[in-house]
Predict the structure.
Amino acid sequence: MRMCSSAGADIREFAGPLRGPPLVPLLDAIEAGEKPVVAAIEGVALGGGFELALVCHYRIVHFKARLGLPEVTLGILPAAGGTQRLPRLIGIPAALELITTGRHISAQEALKLGIVDQVTEQNACELAVEFALRAVAKPLSSRRVSMLTTPCPPDLDALLEAVTMQVKRKARGVMAPLACIQAVRAAATMPYSKGIKRESELMATLFNSGQARALQYCFFAQRTAGKWTLPSGAQWNNSKPREIRSAAIIGLGTMGRGIVVSLARVGISVIAVESEKKLLETGKQMVIGMLERDAKRRGVSASLNLLKFTLSLQDLKDVDLVIEAVFEDMALKKRVFQELSKVCRPATLLCTNTSGLDVDALAGVTDRPHLVVGMHFFSPAHVMKLLEVVCGPRSSSETIATAMSLGKRMGKVSVAVGNCPGFVGNRMLKPYLDQATFLLEEGATPEQIDKALEDFGFAMGVFRMSDLAGLDVGWRVRKESGLIGPDVDPKNPPRRRQGRRYCPIPDMVCEQGRFGQKTGRGWYMYDKPGGTNAKPDPLIQNLLEMYRSRYGIQPRNISDQEIIERCLFALANEGFRILEDGIAARPEDIDVIYLFGYGFPRHGGGPMFYASMVGLERVLERLEHYHQAHPDVPHLEPSPLLKKLVACGSPPVQKWREHIKTMHSHL
Ligand SMILES: CCCCCC/C=C/CC(=O)SCCNC(=O)CCNC(=O)[C@H](O)C(C)(C)COP(=O)(O)OP(=O)(O)OC[C@H]1O[C@@H](n2cnc3c(N)ncnc32)[C@H](O)[C@@H]1OP(=O)(O)O
């Protein structure tokens, strides 16, 4: 059988009723046939493609091919016999690992695991024909995988239990990996004829689940996000990116260091700049350590020869692109951009890693506003996959194309967004954080709110995330925006500022020098500064009690449902406003930002998909309810776009674009 490449089933077809003849009997018939069937695999054999290869009597694989059963990542399981044949072929532990993670493996690993018979650097099809000719005379019974006895470890139950615990810890609330474990158990404990029925029953529970719909949506959303479009007609497939061979990073703080590593490991020469010798030396040692550890993990040599460290901006005159990653201070950034304008050659792209400041204001102080763009990395920049590419009104299509393509080269998921305070991710974070702190005032604790969000599936609750990011960052932003100032009475800080409800608790926490993990104290306490093990802190409990009694607030019991609704519906509501304002082009872009940058669970699809899954009518009704209860919180007032979508019958996410006015587009 010539298979070449197969990415498995067309995932789009899962949205409707499945058509065509049932696959399992067809595959069983191929395996039961008397003529030897040899699979020749080039490119990929994934999902159904891999299951097809498993019914063949032999498998020949090109050395560059990749194989895998990624169904679990789509919220389903390999239901064309994959969960029954793979354990029989390679044993329970290895099969469990591959099926529950869905990871792709190389041809070499497949050979080592005993999945394939030969790896070739030549044409796999030609070799497969030779193989088949030799196999004609040989008996096939031992080559029919479904007939094999599953090699079973003596401690099967303990193994399955351990993997179940691991899966539950890693992917809280996710159904598919648990169903995969049950299917593999069937392969170990039942004959194939019964195991395949169990596989099918388990698939039936997953196939139409909300989690499967969300995960399949994520697959396409991630691919849609790279396809940016500007109102001018310039877009991803008609704008040529520049080739970037050399780059410079200004500032070797946490962000700058991560960006240097991200660039150097994909072969780009990097000049790293600091303002003081001591900072430069510290940054240098940390970058070298990070690159060495990264190279060791990947089994390659560290590209230290690509690095240069300097105190002088004059050294940047020939680089292709600069990314500024200095302190989040507009005046300082403007000085840097003015300086860069003078020293860099006229064609150098100037990028800023600001997490929310006005990219166009920075462009305005340069001699090349069309070559200025935001590249908002997420911390730690060498680990986090998200990159917001912030398109200023004057950024050229070539500049945007270059930033997007550079992001892809660094292995990032790049999303083009418009220029407004906080862009997409951090702009949406404000209402989400506000709701969490209002809930504290009303009676909740940080650990209760975090638990509700983590049970929902977030990698980290809002307070643990804030402790990790550093509480001083938001404090400084609030000071700069005039929310905190000399006119605020520190003994009696007002709970209403700039015409709306304000919660001063985060400021009180900062006033005590509690900036999160880095100071060993924040919303939680840690063993030491830099510690990561968060424990509830009685001092925070006291602070909350004193605060409530000072303001005469009677604490009430708050349900997890209220926590989820207020935090997540406020988040999505701001997402609707962002779409109205043209700051994000599509709901998919917003969802991808929250999936890759803010730990939103993939099986929830992202805030916008989640809202559509809950039902826009319900989201609207709950927001109206909460806004009525808290009229001084404008973020709870349902956005006009949400109302419009409900009035139009709540179309699916993919159709929202038709209801968004494009005349406001900032993209
Ligand atoms: C013989 C088949 C019978 C099967 C019946 C039994 C049922 C079995 C269940 C399954 O098979 S579920 C599907 C399992 N397969 C996967 O999950 C593979 C998903 N795809 C990938 O991992 C990657 O796309 C890739 C194949 C490794 C290629 O990666 P690459 O980076 O090169 O390209 P992409 O940008 O990701 O994809 C290009 C293009 O193709 C679309 N696409 C890829 N795979 C599928 C798919 N299985 N179904 C539908 N569409 C797919 C992807 O969306 C891109 O489209 P775009 O329009 O260009 O954005």
Notes: The chain has a mean pLDDT of 96.
